[in-house]
Amino acid sequence: MGIAVDGTSVYWTNYDGTGTVRKVPIDGGPLATLGSGFSFPSGITVDTRSVYWTDYDLVGAVWTFPIGGGVPTMIASGQVWPRNIVVDSTSVYWTNEANADTNTTLMKMPIGGGIPITLASSFPG
Description:
single chain, mainly beta, Neuraminidase, 4-stranded antiparallel β-sheet, 0% helix, 53% strand, globular
């Protein structure tokens, strides 16, 4: 579903029933699974410290994983179909896709954690 790249690796999400987030060296090599068992991992982005991705499962979540390894951590939940995601030096941004009952929203949260805020909202269609 999603793909991101940094200076050393390519990262992607698998929306194929396995619900995995993976990476491989940019020039090829061994495949690494950063996380698995997610419902619908979608968007993915990376900075110098972490990998971030969205999972629009029943709790609608944003996850992170340290570049150097570790355990995936949910940093936001209760989102409505989170999809696209980007990161800058201070914040993580993502979109929540609209459905029949909700607006499309653009969300923002500090990289270090906190409460997500809505930057913009629009009606479906």
